[in-house]
Amino acid sequence: MTDPVQGFSRFTKEEKIRWIARRYTARPEATEDLLQSYWHADPALQQLHDEFIENTLSNFYLPLGVAPNFNINGKLYAIPMAIEESSVVAAASKSAKFWGSRGGFKTQVLGTRKVGQVHFRYNGDPNTLKAFIESAMPALMQESEGLTRNMERRGGGIHAIALRDKRQELPGYYQLHCEFETRDAMGANFINSCLEQFATTLEKEARTYPGFKGEEAPLEILMSILSNYVPDCRVRATVSCPVADLGQDNGMDGETFARRMIQAVKIAEADPFRAVTHNKGIMNGIDAVVIATGNDFRAVEAGVHAYACRSGKYRSLSHADISEGEFRFWLEVPLALGTVGGLTKLHPMVRLALEILGNPTAPELMEITATAGLAQNYGALSSLVTVGIQRGHMKMHLLNILNEQGASPEEKDLLIDYFKTHTVSHSAVTERLKKLRNPG
Ligand code: MEV
Fold first, then answer.
1. What class of enzyme is it (predicted)?
2. Do 159 and 220 lie in a common domain?
3. Is the same domain home to 98 and 139?
4. Annotated catalytic residue: which of 13, 40, 97, 280?
5. Cα–ligand 1 centroid distance for 314 (angstroms)
6. Cα–Cα nearest to 397, from 144, 88, 167, 186
7. Which pLDDT tens digit goes with each residue over 228-260?
8. pLDDT-wise least confident of 203-207, 266-270, 320-324, 388-392
9. What does the pLDDT look like over 65-100, one tens digit per residue?
């Protein structure tokens, strides 16, 4: 094994690139050129990106697409989506068009509460701890006032602080389970700062609390951190129309199609293997909007999948039924999103994505994002229960295959035309391209 590098973070960007290129790549000069070719032409903008993280070498592009014609609660949106997977934007756009002529998407924010916890150990009498926390409550609120003042002015702040006895899970384990309203901010910094202040206050108050009889360290704070599980920061998106209006361009009648859609959803409610893929399809839409709007997709992913497991079994996030001749298809997801703070003002593309969406509030962004998830799920299921996904997917994938093979614009045009009437597969495209290049 070679020696570890020392002081890498203090290298200049050029030194880091050179070191990585030489140490780990077969063609160092080509690596350097590649990394530099992805730098922004404007050095100030490149510096902005460099400073988002540490040890930046270059930028990593994702396509930014847009799915137009989303009627959400009677307002028309074009939804920006940052995603590398072909078919996702096309499927979202197709669903938007389909539902746009059937009343559009209806959404409802079911809550905006976020959660954070101070985790601690205590081995004494639980009633003494309970009395201590009650006595410390005014100090907890007062000593965090400097942090909460601005948020309160915007209508947010601390909503609840409760002691939770978790000894059944872990000996001596308690937590201060706290709820917050963070308005248009995702709120991670606000919540974590409040929690760390709570921890400091608790330790200080504990030292002088008479019930603890001067014990050296009656409680041991372990950590203070927000939770990405936000079941009370949740949104519902719904579409519905008479079953008869579901007639598809694939020739399936509305009733058969509705029955097959509902069965597909029921399978995802019953079987975790299918549920994971079903929900992945939903996340295709959700993540693309979350990334385009500069939100934390890891937080959203973790929270959404935990929510899908809330019954103890991993299940579908979407549901479907027929009620009085009306087909209903809906989705409920927890989404902690922000439209201020974080990257929202800093990243030019994020700023633009938010502008395209009409600079939404955080609850509006929850509605738009859930809609993208539902549209995506509808698109995937409607293909799966009719013609299958490969036909459309491989059509979209055709360009990727052609690019991978270095096809010229003329070759692309000819082959796109050819594959309008032929089945796309990697080998069929390669074969056809070969034939085009060597007609003999
Ligand atoms: C592919 O990215 C997503 C799907 O697999 C979703 C699904 O199966 O429902 C098509």
1. oxidoreductase
2. yes
3. no
4. 280
5. 16
6. 88
7. 999 999 999 999 999 999 976 667 899 999 999
8. 388-392
9. 999 999 999 999 999 999 999 899 999 999 999 999
pLDDT one-digit tens code per residue, 179-188: 999 999 999 9
Mutate to test the pocket of ligand 1, among 260, 278, 382 (most ligand atoms within 8 A of CB): 278
For residue 340, give the DSSP letter: B
Q: Which two tokens stand for residue 133?
A: 């926390």
Q: Is residue 1 part of a domain?
A: no
Point out the catalytic residue in the list 184, 287, 296, 367. 296
| Whether residue 216 sits in one domain with residue 294 | no
Examine the pLDDT at 112 and tell me if it is beyond 90: yes
Catalytic residue, candidates 13, 40, 49, 85: 85
Atom of ligand 1 nearest to the CA of 383: 10
Do residues 199 and 118 lie in contact, with contact meaning Cβ atoms separated by under 8 Å? yes
Write down the pLDDT at residue 250. Answer: 67
Q: Do 177 and 288 lie in a common domain?
A: no
pLDDT-based confidence at residue 60 (cuts at 50, 70, 90): very high
Q: What secondary structure does DSSP assign to 391-436, as a single string?
A: HHHHHHHHHHHHHHTT--HHHHHHHHHHTTSS---HHHHHHHHHHH
- Distance between Cα 369 and ligand 1 center (Å): 18
Q: How far, in Å, CA of 143 to CA of 201, rounded?
A: 7
Domain of 144, in residue numbers? 113-227
Instruction: Clarify whether residues 243 and 358 are in a common domain.
Output: yes
- Residue tagged 């600079």 (tokens): 359
Q: For residue 424, tell me if it sits in a domain.
A: yes
> Going by CA atoms, what residue is nearest to atom 4 of ligand 1?
281
Task: Check residue 42 and report its DSSP letter.
Answer: S
Smallest CA separation from ligand 1 atom 7, residue: 278
